[in-house]
Structure formats: structure tokens, C-alpha cells
Amino acid sequence: MKNTIKLAARAARAERTVVRLSNGAAFGGETLAICAGPCAVESAEQLEACAKAVRSNGANVLRGGAFKPRTSPYAFQGLGESGLELLRAVADRYGMAVVTEVLDTRDVALVAGYADMLQIGARNMQNVPLLRLAGESGKPVLLKRGMSATVDEWLMAAEYVLLTGNDKVVLCERGVRSFDSSTRNLLDLSVVPLLAALTHLPVIVDPSHGTGIARLVEPMALAAIAAGADGLLVEVHPDPASAVSDGHQSLTPDEFGVLMGRMSSLAPAIGRRLPHTLLEGIA
Length: 283
Ligand code: PEP
Ligand code: MN
Description:
The protein is α/β, with parallel strands linked by helices. 34% of the residues lie in helices and 13% in strands. It is globular, with a radius of gyration of 17 Å.
């Protein structure tokens, strides 16, 4: 039977959506959105060190999980609301926006009270009640690709958010499960140009979860931007060896600086810009 639903995510609009956050960060414009920070918010000191490192190297959105979707229930689950408070306070001090994951429908209002953008993680991409509530919050939504989701399933998940009347959806490729365990996931960069033809929504790439290996993050980040991605989501930790989660795929502040240096050569070559680097007033 012919599908008569209006497919908002697939609308062949001439105009591409640009999702803007209150600090001026934008997804889908000429300037890239650089989201960086720890996998999990661990402490005030850790988050401060991360924010200082990533902001001074040009990131404009602070990432960090306060509610963590860990594979094991015995692993660190996140600081919860105190993690959200830290994210807000530190991001405000550095002129950054906050993107953080909401795991549970019961926490949508809480997370929306602190964050500029709600992240829906790979494990929840098809959690319909969560998609609807995140959409109804009116906050921009960062929708990660499910680890075994097809592009169609991913766009239909975006559709649930769009149908609430919230058109501020950004897609994030973070790799899919494959037969090969050489990397944590198989980072599918071909979806970047593919989605550009299928949807008006901005697309960013997460090379940290996409590869699971810190030294692969920089080359894949550069490749993502070369392929046309509107931004990046990168894990950075002041001391990856001591990170409570995903240390092996987290960049040090210095490595992040090197990545952004190389990005500053690449971006203009393909008609993109990086966010402003240094923020006046940072101690
Ligand atoms: C994350 O970005 O912190 C995360 C848990 O990623 P994913 O949902 O892609 O596994
Ligand atoms: Mn992580």
C-alpha cells in the first residue's frame, strides 16, 4: 500500500535546515559545529579541564554524559542531575552550549532544563516515547544512528521528532555493528553524502564511538568533514588512562589541538569554517 504519510525528514526542500543553539553554535551552516568533551562527566575538575582544552582549540559545544547508557549495569552510570549542573555551569563559563544524553522518558524535562540540545543515543534511536517527548520539549535533538539501524529506520526515527512540530533535528553517524571487531564499530562515512541527498537535516559524525580507538579519531574526523559533515562529536579527556568510560577512544587535550589544527587547513578547502578559537575572558 502506498505510504500516504508526509515524510518530513525526507522533504526535498531546497533549503537545508540549520539548527542553531543559544551560544551561536550552528549545525548545517558554513561554520562547523564542534562538539567535544568527556564521555562521562566525572567531576568538576575533570569537566573544567575538558572545557578549557576543547574551547581554547575551537569547540563550541560541550558534550558529556550525566546519564550513561552502559552495557554493564555494574559500570559507572553517570552523576545524574549533579552532572547536568556541572555541564551547565562550566559551559556557561566558557561560552559553550551543552549537548547531553537523555536516556529515560522520565528525565526529559530535567535534562531539557539544563541542556541546549538533547542527545538520543544509539541504544534509544527507536525508543518512540523518548523521541516524542524529546521532540515535544522543543529543544534541538541530536539523534545518533542505532548500532544496527538502516538509513531508512534512522530517518523514520527523526520523523517521530519532526512530527511533534520540532524541526531542530541533527543526525549523528556513530558507526554500526559489523562482523569485524578490529574497530569498535564500522564508521559509515558514506551516509554523509547519501543523507545530503535524502534529507534537509544536518549530519555530524562521531569518530570516537565510530572507531573506539583514539589514534583513528583524527583521520576519520578529517575524512568526515571532507565528506561534507556539518560537524563532529569527539570525546576528549584530560587523562584518558584514568577515564571512567571510553578512555581508549578519548583524545588528550594536545591530540584534540592537533586535530583542530589540521581541521583549520582542511575546512576552507571545502568551503567550511571552524568556530572562533579563543574566547576572551577565559582565565
Ligand atoms: C555517547 O555519545 O556518549 C554515547 C553513549 O554514544 P552512542 O549512543 O553512540 O553509543
Ligand atoms: Mn563514550
